[in-house]
Amino acid sequence: MRETVETLVRLESPSDDKAAVDRCGEELTRRLTAIGATIARVLQTTCGDHVRAEWRSKHTTRGPSAPILLLGHFDTVWPVGTLERMPLQERDGRLHGPGIFDMKAGITASMLAMRALTEFNKGTADVVMLWTADEEVGSSTSRALIEETALASSAVLVLEPSLPGGAAKTSRKGVGEFELTVHGVAAHAGLDPGKGASAVHELARQVLALEALQDPDRGITINVGVIAGGSRTNVIADHATAHVDVRVQTMEDAARLEAAIRRLRPSRPSIRLEMSGGIGRPPLERSAGVIRLYERARNVAATLGQEFGEGAAGGGSDGNFTAALGVPTLDGLGPQGDGAHAIHEHVLLDDLTWRGAFLARLIESLAGSTSAVQR
Q1: Structural domains present in the chain
Q2: pTM for this structure?
């Protein structure tokens, strides 16, 4: 398992470098084939190819069944060359490296689980793994594939990093991105200021209006992260833009907030607002299906002598898409660690093989009973 995760980490795979991502995907394909998977590479032109692996039960008398979907991504936020300043190394029981926590260790744990189930002649589960290549940049090319695969599955296990202490993620915020463009009226700031309408000043008013839509107690947050506008200090600005990040906990709040954002109006008739974007990644809500799946996982962990907690995450994953479809989804099943997208990114070595054993037993348990994950 350690050799596998180290190999995948050394194959740096930033989302925007198709050649690099495909090199990692080729190695992933080779290793999945070696443990008995049937592979389909989903070819892409603008990003790396997605990898789909499938195992079908040896007990064919049951007839076709909906598989268990193991979901994640092998693209990372780290550019090629990061290993030079952030080397793959072990320190104090932690294995450090770019992309190891988010989320190549999770992929490796799932591969160990399927290897165990195959080699110990326990091929009783229909399993599909879907490893995508564009999650870190919004999943634009993989979303339809993820949703199609999830709808044909009985449950979704997401191998994104676990919460501190190893807990699963039973809820995640939905994520939206908006771009606000303000169209003003240019004029000379000294000679004819009354003839102008500043887009920059209007943008400042709209930023305050956006801030007023926040409700942190309900998990609704808004961040205006990037702004730009104007041309010269002596020219009243005729344009300005803002890029806005929004986070919500429920589908109801997502619809309400998006409607409120689109109702924003300019303070003067001569100014025009243009709003684009939306809440593209729905929230993963702690639904009845999610709870049933979590309770099954908690019971499995108990048989292995471990407590298995749950919690919420502010960031989104591809599990948001599958949960929004009503497919039972449990996220954050990857190994313990810390530092996603940060220079200290690492996983705990002691947790790696336990995760593989836990996933193998969870897959067995889910394959043996559909009642725990019925929609």
Answers
A1: 2-172+284-373 (3.40.630.10), 174-281 (3.30.70.360)
A2: 0.91
